[in-house]
Structures are given as C-alpha cells and as structure tokens.
Amino acid sequence: AIEVLKSNENKLENDISVETYKTDYPRIKYELDNEIFTYFPDFFINEKDIVEINSYTVFHLNKNKKEAKAEAARKYCQENGLIYKILYEDDLGVEYRLPDYIKNYNFPHSW
Question: Environment class of residue 102 by beta-carbon count within 10 Å: exposed (0-12), middle (13-18) or buried (19+)?
Fold first, then answer.
C-alpha cells in the first residue's frame, strides 16, 4: 500500500494489496500545552496501518504539534496492535509549494 503512494498513480484504489482504507480515521486524542486536541491521520489502511503524510517544511514549522500527534499515534498503535508510519511528500515525489504567508520564513539550517 505504501508503494502505491510512492508511484505516479498515487491512488490506493489501484493497489491490489489494499483491501480497505479510510481517511481521517481513527480519531486520536493528544495533548499539547495542557490542552487536549483530536488528531485525524491521513489514512487507515487494511485496518492495521495508520499513515500520516507530511512535508518536511510544514513538519518543522509545526514541530511541537506534529511531534505531539506522532507520539499519541504511536501510543495508540502500540495499545491497539497497529502500525504507525510517517511518509514525507518529498520522499513520495510530490512537490510541495510553500504558501505565500511563509515564503519568507527563515528556516533553520539543521533539521
């Protein structure tokens, strides 16, 4: 299933290893700055893989939030016998374009 996301088709419907998938499921609670939020992963594949797709740029702009979500998702997966994976758009061959409001942001050099 992950390989099809890396292909040019980018359609889970075309992958014969994908029996089922859902988007924005399951709902995972996470805490950030003493507040509780709900995280909706990008894909839930074959009732066992939770997949989040990020961009390196957006991840580092929202690092605390993204790390809190990932930590909660890993814990959720461990408790429920699931697998959590983070894929980056860069690795999938997807070109990410910065929104105008962050084009002039001074990014750190070491990620």
Answer: exposed
Peptide bond into 26 cis (omega under 30): yes
- Per residue in 54-93, pLDDT (tens digit) is 888 888 888 999 999 999 999 999 999 999 999 887 777 6
Handedness of CA 28, 49, 94, 107 (dihedral sign): positive
17-33 residue pLDDT tens: 888 889 889 999 999 99
> Which is nearest to 67 in space by CA: 96, 105, 32, 37?
32
